[in-house]
Structure prediction request, 78 residues.
Amino acid sequence: MAFNRLALKAWRESQSLSQTEAARRFQITQAFLSELETGKKEPSFSMLEAISEKTGIALGDFSTANPLETSGERSGES
Prediction:
């Protein structure tokens, strides 16, 4: 399963949370959350379950069939 990083970032932004605030809720570092949102890292399944529980986003909504949505290789992103 490829991780849909955009679902996580969209949730955080919809809640008007900074990365630091969201990371605190997920009990991870802000740096790791940044890596998740930019596609540099993928969460373990247990971490994904915890994030799903805390956000109310279904596990299936964190998967994507489009590798460009997970890799950070889209044009205009660094």
Notes: The chain is about 55% helix and 5% strand. Strands lie at 2-3, 63-64. The CA atoms of residues 13 and 46 lie 23 Å apart.
